[in-house]
UniProtKB/TrEMBL annotation:
It comes from the Eukaryota. It is found in: Membrane. Its main location: membrane. Residues 97-207 form the Ig-like domain. Pfam families: V-set. One of its GO terms (cellular component) is plasma membrane. GO terms for molecular function: transmembrane signaling receptor activity. Residues 198-235 are annotated as: Disordered. The chain crosses the membrane at residues 244-263. This is Ig-like domain-containing protein. It comes from Hucho hucho (huchen).
Length: 288
């Protein structure tokens, strides 16, 4: 009654070819159940394709025990033999599966981390792999895949049994893609989508991870430097206005001073000339 999504990765040279999923019978004959030239559900299977990531994905729903078996992902070759690009064994049980995850679709934020929990009952080496042109795996404890830190932690749950907790840190946009959680011979595909961090998310992250400091208010939208800068501009404008008024006033004072000095000199000269002329035409008489 459950469902599963299976990614099948192909070579770039097959991007325009028809791809399909088929179940192999006891005669090793594989007849297509669903293919990419029919993008719709057929019975209990549906298919989609992402050419940019060179992956076509098959989702099978309402699974029953009769759906258990071997499957192939293949590419149709016109005028030649088809090419198998992926093969896997699907095991559908009535009880608890030997390996499963809560969800096959996980979303994270750029720069953040995601946690995937894989529950299992079988034994074997534990691993986390990125599905690309060449599969890159981290085994048992910790390591990196394409520069991203990956930690594997083994714990036990009282009701679910063994738990493999996978933590991927330092996510980047190119971390988006298909991964596999594996224990022994069993593997479960998990798709991780990384989204860009929004302004709200970024502010929230800074608030929760930084300790309060006296400099913290300077990061707020109403920080003091904005107001201080405006005050400087206002003071500068006032200073310029005052200079504009003082310059002509000073020049006026200089002109008035010059006029007064000139007037005084002219008056003195006129008085002196008057007395000279008066004495010349009206000589003083001497009294006896």
């Amino acid at each position: 009654g459950g469902s599963i999504t299976i990614p099948c990765r192909y070579d770039l040279k097959y991007k325009n070819n028809v791809k399909y999923l088929c179940k192999v019978d006891h005669l090793q004959i594989c007849s297509p159940d669903v293919q990419t030239d029919h993008f719709k559900s057929i019975d209990k299977a549906s298919v989609s394709q992402d050419i940019n990531k060179q992956t076509f994905t098959v989702t099978m729903t309402d699974l029953g025990t009769k759906d258990s078996g071997r499957y192939w992902c293949a590419v149709e070759i016109n005028g030649g033999s088809d090419v198998m690009i992926e093969r896997f064994q699907l095991s559908v049980t009535a009880g608890t599966p030997e390996l499963y995850v809560d969800q096959q679709e996980v979303t994270g934020v750029e720069g953040g981390s995601v946690i995937v929990k894989c529950y299992y009952r079988n034994t074997g080496n534990r691993k986390w792999c990125k599905i690309r042109d060449s599969v890159q795996c981290v085994w048992e404890n910790s390591g990196t895949t394409e520069g991203k830190s990956v930690t594997l932690q083994q714990t036990t749950d009282a009701t679910r049994g063994n738990v493999l907790t996978v933590t991927m840190s330092g996510l980047k946009m190119d971390s988006t893609g298909w991964y596999r959680c594996g224990v022994g011979d069993l593997m479960m595909p998990v798709h991780i989508t990384v989204r860009q961090q929004t302004t709200t998310q970024s502010t929230s992250t800074m608030t929760t991870t930084q300790s309060p400091t006296t400099e913290q208010p300077s990061f707020s939208p109403t920080a003091e430097p904005v107001q201080t800068e405006g005050g400087k501009e206002k003071d500068t404008m006032s200073s310029i206005d005052l200079k504009v008024l003082l310059i002509p006033l000073g020049m006026l004072v200089v002109v008035i001073s010059g006029v007064l000095v000139t007037w005084k000199m002219w008056r003195k000269h006129s008085k002196y000339s008057f007395y000279n002329n008066y004495n010349q035409y009206f000589p003083r008489r001497q009294l006896y």
